[in-house]
From TrEMBL:
Its main location: secreted. It comes from the Eukaryota. InterPro entries: 4_helix_cytokine-like_core (IPR009079), Somatotropin/Prolactin (IPR001400), Somatotropin_CS (IPR018116). This is PRL protein. Keywords: Hormone, Secreted. Signal peptide: none annotated. GO terms for cellular component: extracellular space. Coiled coil: none annotated.
Length: 140
């Protein structure tokens, strides 16, 4: 996976120990790291004529959801009054220190989906932890 080089906490217990601002930064890095690979993936599957239109629209929908999620996390970050100056500079995969173009493009579709699912699960877990910290009344 092209994000394997990113240092992420192993397990929920370790993720809970990370300060809120760092966890938010990590979420944004993961989301940003998938922007370009998802775009390439969409272009790749558009050339598969045997795929139903339903599959193509789902792939585009996933890319849009990742972008919306990134935007939402940035808004939450601003509302929580985190310092996001360093986060706004993440305009490309180079900013995250990842080499996306070669490794992500060379993965098979099943490997790509496996990696995306793995990172999606991480983001989901990290967001749950942040939600519990920001809104402790949810009895997390």
């Amino acid at each position: 996976c092209h994000t394997s080089g990113m240092l992420t906490p192993n397990g929920k217990e370790y993720a809970q120990k990370i300060p809120r601002e760092e966890l938010t930064h990590l979420i944004l890095k993961l989301l940003q790291a998938w922007k370009e690979p998802l775009s390439h993936f969409n272009q790749h599957i558009e050339h598969h004529q045997e795929l139903p239109d339903d599959s193509l629209s789902k792939a585009k929908q996933i890319s849009n959801m990742v972008h919306e999620l990134k935007t939402g996390v940035e808004k939450v970050t601003e509302k929580a009054r985190f310092s996001i100056n360093s986060l706004n500079g993440m305009a490309s995969s180079e900013a995250t220190g990842l080499s996306v173009s070669n490794e992500a493009n060379m993965m098979s579709d099943s490997d790509f989906i496996h990696c995306f699912r793995r990172d999606s699960n991480k983001v989901q877990s990290y967001l749950k932890i942040l939600k519990c910290r920001i809104m402790p009344e949810n009895s997390c």
